[in-house]
Structures are given as structure tokens and as C-alpha cells.
């Protein structure tokens, strides 16, 4: 995925992509749309999304006589969280269902820290 796929004009967006074998895991952070001009708490400022895809190769029929083998992304899991802490709290159990190698799980958990608003604002 490319960053411009997640760009929304005037909105703060960020994503992290992690690949492990046939699984592609996408974590995104989108700024919430405010209904009123009021100050909001940091945790209420963003929504966090998890998408977990599995790549499968299937036979497709292009014409009456032609058959092709092509890759398809099958969605295995998706969920929306209202805070970064809520997402991270559930993340280990979700990842452990799809990734058996604990080192890979911890790599993914470390990558997700990029979406933490505390880390994001410290860089600016």
C-alpha cells in the first residue's frame, strides 16, 4: 500500500503494513471528523482500524475457454478501535491467531507503535 491511498485532504492519516507469509496486516489511523469546533481529548481525536488479509491463489475464468490462476486478498479480520491503548490491548491475542512465530508478533507490535499519538507528536 502507498501513503497516498490513505490521504484525505485536511485530515491526519497514518498507516503501518506488516507482511508475514500469506498474511498482510494493515493498521491505519484516521483523524475523526469533528462535528463542532471544540477541543477534544487526544484519545478521542483518532480512530484506529485493523485489516487482516490472507492471499489465496484461485482459478479464474477470463473467457469461455481461458482459465488463469491469480492471487486474491481474502479479508480474515477487521475491527475499529476508538483509542490506541484499546487497540494495543487486544492486538497480541489477534496476531497470535494468525502468526505463530512469536518474534514476528513482537516485530509487528513494535511497528504499530508508530501509530501512537504520543510518539507521533514527539517527532514534530
UniProtKB/TrEMBL annotation:
Q: What is this protein called?
A: Uncharacterized protein
Amino acid at each position: 500500500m502507498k501513503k497516498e491511498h490513505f490521504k484525505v485532504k485536511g485530515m491526519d492519516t497514518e498507516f503501518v503494513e506488516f507482511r508475514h507469509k500469506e498474511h498482510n496486516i494493515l493498521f491505519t489511523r484516521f483523524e475523526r471528523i469533528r462535528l463542532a469546533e471544540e477541543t477534544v481529548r487526544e484519545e478521542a481525536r483518532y480512530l484506529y482500524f485493523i485489516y487482516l488479509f490472507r492471499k489465496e491463489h484461485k482459478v479464474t475464468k477470463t473467457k469461455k475457454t481461458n482459465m488463469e490462476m491469480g492471487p486474491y486478498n481474502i479479508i480474515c479480520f477487521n475491527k475499529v478501535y476508538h483509542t490506541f491503548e484499546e487497540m494495543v490491548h487486544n492486538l497480541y491475542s489477534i496476531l497470535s491467531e494468525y502468526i505463530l512465530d512469536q518474534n514476528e508478533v513482537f516485530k509487528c507490535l513494535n511497528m504499530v507503535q508508530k501509530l501512537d499519538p504520543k510518539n507521533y507528536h514527539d517527532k514534530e
